[in-house]
Write a structure and sequence with these properties.
This protein is an alpha/beta fold. The protein has three domains: 270 residues, Rossmann fold, CATH 3.40.50.10490; 185 residues, Rossmann fold (3-Layer(aba) Sandwich); 51 residues, no CATH class. It has 17 helices and eleven strands. The strands form two sheets. The protein has a six-stranded mixed beta sheet, sandwiched between helices.
């Protein structure tokens, strides 16, 4: 167990004094800033408002060495089967050239697929790809869920200023009918292209939405043959995609060594390529690749994702920060917290070590967040004067060519002010003004982007990816499976059969959970409500 390592025990012994100290000084503020701020890939990572002293910081470095995190990184990037529960490598870095020592066959497959995607994107963007009636494509409907949805939607939304094609994008994930209905409202099937993304091509939500989209299209085109011009499949199950009606030329691979939450660099990123074009997508990949190289080559004391991971572990396991707020002071990054929720909590929300032993320490806070300045008039009151400890990443963007200097200055000023208030708080001098007291002493990281452009966004997302993987190594867990997600999917199948009347209560599964009487009462109530509506 990691908590048996000498460095972990030393951190635990010295943690209590930090819980109420505002902005603990490493030495003086200027030296602190120089030691805890890093410029890389056009981004500033400022950790100077983290609650660490120089001694704590060095002990965290020792923990990384004792946990052999660098050896794990080398194994990850070399293609070792680090996903031990599924016996798979984890090589999404290879999709952007960040794992240079991979098998040449794999490298060639990645490059060949990328070129096919670029050719497809050029045809659609240039108007050369024609629908069944000879009209050019105008709307893209992307159907997926989880990792195959959150990444592309985030990037297309964040880079809308960089879109260079006259295309409209619609993202569908929820099996709730309102999601698909809203996406299809007002669309012309003659000019609509559907992208269906599912590694197995059997994910229930995606199956249902894709089937309904197919029915919508066929009702309006009256042609099975037309599917070939209007549906793209991204999957590892070519046979299932073909049975759906997607032609072989329109199927793009998802390899088993690419996890869903790390997949936006693959064919899953097709909407990104369609929006910003192949050249800008290459810049996006280059930004991520620069972080891959930094992770691989930088020493522990200068390795930015590893430092972020260590500080996060210090906050969660020793300073009792039970939540991580991601506060982006730029509307283009509004979907970043949603994306990071899956990336971080699905990766590291675990309670079992890699050897199968039950952990006796926690591994992941609740991640949430939003955009400034909206959040300041909502949940920031709780952050400033509530009783729970938290840590926060505040993301600032220096430039946006589409807003006025007044707007940008206001955003930046508010972000800087919130960071200062979270760290330092406010203690009124009057004894009868306790209601104005703001405790402060919350650990804050500030990330400053020059602009939200393809390269810097690629670097930012790769930074978070590697921070997550380093934390998984520090906690000695497998960050690459998600069996908790699978349980809910398994239980939903027999419940759906009962709701439809296809199977009676308590049948359709051999698991004990299927006999849950509380679920049975709710099923009966829902069926009764359905009967009254029929």
């Amino acid at each position: 167990m990691r908590n048996e390592l000498p460095a972990w025990q030393a951190l635990a012994a010295g943690a209590k004094e930090f819980q109420t100290l505002p902005n603990v000084a490493l030495t003086d503020p200027q030296d602190r800033h120089s030691q805890l701020s890093f410029n890389y890939a056009n981004l500033l990572f400022d950790f100077s408002r983290q609650q660490v002293t120089g001694e704590t910081y060095q002990t965290l470095h020792q923990l990384a060495e004792q946990a052999e995190v660098k050896a794990f990184i080398d194994s990850l990037l070399s293609g070792a089967a680090v996903n031990i529960s599924e016996n798979r490598p984890v090589l999404h870095s290879a999709l952007r050239g960040g794992a240079p020592n991979i098998d040449p066959v794999m490298r060639n497959a990645v490059e060949a697929t990328k070129q096919r995607l670029y050719e497809l994107a050029d045809k659609v963007r240039n108007g050369d790809w024609r629908g069944f009636s000879g009209k050019a494509i105008r709307d893209i409907v992307h159907i997926g869920i989880g990792g195959s949805h959150l990444g592309p939607e985030l990037v297309v939304t964040a880079l809308h200023n960089h879109q260079t094609a006259d295309l409209r994008f619609h993202f569908v994930a929820n099996v709730d009918a309102h999601d698909l209905t809203q996406a299809l409202r007002g669309l012309n099937p003659e000019t609509t292209l559907f992208i269906v993304v599912s590694k197995s091509f059997s994910t229930i939500e995606t199956q249902i939405n894709a089937a309904l989209a197919r029915s919508w299209f066929l009702e309006r085109s009256a042609s099975l043959e037309a599917i070939a011009q209007h549906f793209i499949g991204i999957t590892s199950n070519v046979e299932a995609a073909a049975q759906f009606g997607i032609t072989a030329n329109n199927i793009y691979p998802l390899w088993d060594w690419v996890g869903g939450r790390f997949s936006l660099w693959s064919a899953v990123g097709l909407p990104i390529i369609l929006a910003i074009g192949p050249a800008s997508f290459e810049a996006f990949l280059e930004g991520a690749r620069s972080i891959d190289e930094h992770l691989s080559n930088a020493p522990v004391e200068e390795n930015i994702p590893l430092i972020a991971a260590l500080l996060g572990l210090w906050n969660y396991n020793f300073l009792d920060c039970r939540s991580l707020a991601v506060l982006a002071y730029d509307e283009r990054l509004a979907l970043l917290p949603n994306y990071l929720q899956q990336l971080e909590m699905e990766s590291n929300g675990k309670s079992v070590a890699r050897n199968g032993d039950r952990l006796d320490y926690s591994t992941m806070p609740v991640l949430w967040g939003g955009t400034g300045t909206n959040g300041q008039h909502a949940y920031h009151q709780l952050l400033h004067q509530g009783a729970e400890r938290f840590c926060a990443d505040i993301i600032l963007v220096a430039h946006d060519h589409y807003d006025s200097p007044l707007q940008r200055r206001s955003l930046l000023a508010n972000g800087l002010a919130q960071a200062e208030a979270f760290a330092n708080g406010y203690q009124p001098s009057e004894s009868d003004q306790a209601h104005r007291n703001v405790p402060g002493a919350h650990p804050i990281s500030t990330i400053v982007m020059n602009d939200v452009n393809p390269q810097e966004l690629g670097s930012l997302l790769a930074h978070y990816e590697h921070k997550v993987l380093c934390q998984g190594a520090l906690w000695d867990i497998n960050s690459f499976d998600q069996w908790g997600v699978e349980l809910g999917k398994k239980l939903a199948i027999p419940i759906a059969a009962q709701l439809s009347g296809e199977s009676p209560a308590n049948e359709g599964s051999s698991t004990a959970e299927r006999k849950d009487l509380y679920t049975q009462h709710l099923i009966a109530h829902l069926k009764q409500l359905a009967a009254t509506q029929s």
